[in-house]
Amino acid sequence: MPPALIVFDLDGTLIDSAADLASAINAMLADLGCDPLSVPEVRRMIGDGVAMLVGRALAARHCDAADPTRAAEIFMRHYESDATSLTTAFPGVAAALRVLRSAGIPLAVCTNKPARITAGILSSLGLAQYFARVIGGDSLPYRKPDPRVLLALLEAFAASPRDSVLVGDSEVDAATAQAAGVPFVLMKHGYRRGPSADIACMAALESFAELPGLLRTPPG
Questions:
Q1: End-to-end CA distance of the chain, in Å?
Q2: pTM, whole model, 2 decimals?
Q3: 105, 3 contact by CB (below 8 A)
Q4: Which of 3, 32, 79, 137 has the lowest CB atom count within 10 Å?
Q5: Distance CA 167, CA 202 (A)
């Protein structure tokens, strides 16, 4: 039997959004009179939500006088104005989602990105049709790595942790899955901060083409 539910992270898992995030971060830094960051630098800051991304960018450029709350508002204004021009789905994502959905497996998204922006990106990339539910970083009072966000999603589908799977790209996703008792699949193309070998998972995949075959058998 296939999993009862497959939950996907967004940034670094389904989509490569680093360039658009870096563009918005650098527009924010310019507004604050600070020097820009490279895309690889911003890529290493992604994964814990807007506040952490902005805070890391400010710290990296020693913008000590900037108010983090105002900086986050500036970042969001820039990001919301253009969140998709440089963002793409990773190769094989749509094909893998299509196969999994055709097998009757419910699919969902659990991300720390704000829900409204998430919905817009998924729609723009033609991926929204595959997901029965999307949970963003502002959908609940908690976010990853708090396991309650994942457990709430499983509860909505009446799916048990052991019969579900979280597919992600980072240490944050792995910690969320482990705390919730959900098997974890690591996509190695993502935004992790350390070696993939250091991240506990049931499988570490190079591409989405490998995912449908892996999940033809029960997780665990």
A1: 12
A2: 0.92
A3: yes
A4: 32
A5: 10
Contact 201, 214 (CB under 8 A): no
CATH H-level superfamily of 5-16+87-214: HAD superfamily/HAD-like (3.40.50.1000)
> How far apart are alpha carbons 25 and 54 in whole angstroms?
7
pLDDT at position 64? 87
CATH of domain 18-81: 1.10.150.240
Interacting residues of 193 by C-beta distance below 8 A, sequence separation 6+: 44, 170, 171
Q: What is the pLDDT of residues 87-116, one digit of tens each?
A: 999 999 999 999 999 999 999 999 999 999
Residue 220's pLDDT is what? 43
The pair of structure tokens assigned to 79 is 């990001």
Q: What letters, b where the CB count within 10 A reaches 16 and e where it falls short, cover 163-185? A: bbbbbbbbbbbbbbbbebebbbb
56, 149, 134, 156 alpha-carbon torsion, rounded to 10°: 180
Amino acid 216: pLDDT: 65
Residues sharing a CB contact under 8 Å with residue 123, sequence separation 6 or more, in sequence order: none
Amino acid identity of 129? Q
The span from the CA of 11 to the CA of 87, in Å, is 10
Extents of the domains making up the chain: 5-16+87-214, 18-81
Q: Is the peptide bond before 114 cis (omega within 30 degrees of 0)?
A: no
Catalytic residues: 9
Residue 11 DSSP class: B
| Ranges of the chain whose pLDDT falls below 70 | 216-220
Nearest residue to 109 (alpha-carbon basis) of 11, 17, 206, 196: 11
Q: Determine the pLDDT at residue 1.
A: 73
